[in-house]
Design goal:
Strand order of the largest sheet: 3-1-2-4
Number of helices: 3
Order of helices and strands: EEHEHEH
Helix content: 25-40%
Distance between the termini: 28 Å
Largest sheet: 4 strands, antiparallel
Radius of gyration: 14 Å
């Protein structure tokens, strides 16, 4: 299997980060996403905001970031805003679910 010359990771590598972001422009809303390279992903959010006001609430590394993100979305489906990655939920509630999900993986 070839490796990506940009990341050095195999294309089939699904490990990575699940993260939760908040922005003071939208109080009470959190974004739950996933990324192979967390630093790069967070940087892309900051460049899309003129105030650089996205804040990382919590993140965890998972063996399968896609599966972990889907599980978080499913667990919080009652708080989901439409069919987006945004949720109307308190940060502590999201932290609780993320910690529990990570413990299940360990």
């Amino acid at each position: 299997v070839s490796q990506s010359r940009y990341t050095g990771l195999k294309p089939t590598d699904v490990s990575g980060w699940v993260y939760v972001l908040e922005n003071t422009a939208w109080p009470g809303y959190l974004k739950i996403g996933s990324a192979k390279n967390l630093k790069s992903r967070l940087s892309s959010y900051q460049t899309s905001s003129p105030h650089r006001d996205y804040r990382l609430v919590i993140c965890s590394r998972f063996v399968d970031r896609h599966s972990a993100e889907r599980t978080m979305h499913r667990l919080l489906r009652g708080h989901r805003v439409g069919n987006t990655e945004w949720f109307r939920i308190h940060p502590e509630d999201v932290r609780h679910h993320m910690v529990r999900l990570k413990k299940k993986e360990e």
